[in-house]
């Protein structure tokens, strides 16, 4: 009993980040010259066809979607973590903001080249999709808001308008097999995959 109490005890902390385990996404947006920029993101959630993104200000992604409100939300699997990390030190913004320079971020125009990923044409939006990502969601940007309490980022509401999935993770025409699919998880700045299945909700259809 004493051991259980010790395990359940908690204390107040002040962590620098609160990335408590969220899927990584690679956000594709359209550059001025018609090429595609790729931005790794660790803040998103989905409900229905609405996918909400947290995007830092001062980068190329927010600049692009303000000018051209379309994007592709690519969801990588765990084995792509190295490709994701190759993108981390780079921005598509030629004039790198000072705060990004301080953390070692540099300009790179060819995000596909530096990440060793492959573009494939989208069907309803202009930015290309990433062929290696098992889930690729073409989306329309519907609303952008900068919260007063967190002025360094934007809350971006998007609507999924076309979903693509690798055939090897599908059960049938419209269901992804959770036994075959695992997102790449960003857990306090470390990369993880999913563990073993624990169970399923009563609403599961597969």
Provide a brief overview of the structure.
The chain has 206 residues and is of the alpha+beta class. 15% of the residues lie in helices and 34% in strands.
Q: What does it look like?
A:
The protein has 206 residues and is an alpha+beta fold. The chain contains five helices and 14 strands. Strands 3-2-6-11-12-5-4 form a seven-stranded antiparallel beta sheet, with helices on one face. β11 and β12 (153-165) form a beta hairpin. The longest helix has 8 residues, at 60-67. The mean pLDDT is 94.
Which properties best describe this structure?
single chain; alpha+beta; seven-stranded antiparallel sheet; three-stranded antiparallel sheet; 15% helix; 34% strand; globular
Structural class: alpha+beta
Number of helices: 5
**SSE ordering:** HEEEEEHEHEHEHEEEEEE
Strand order of the largest sheet: 3-2-6-11-12-5-4
Largest sheet: 7 strands, antiparallel
Q: Which stretches are low in confidence, meaning pLDDT under 50 for 5 or more residues running?
A: none
| Cα-atom radius of gyration | 18 Å
Mean pLDDT: 94
Helix content: 10-25%
The shape is globular
The beta-strand count equals 14
Give the strand content. 25-35%
N-end to C-end Cα span: 39 Å
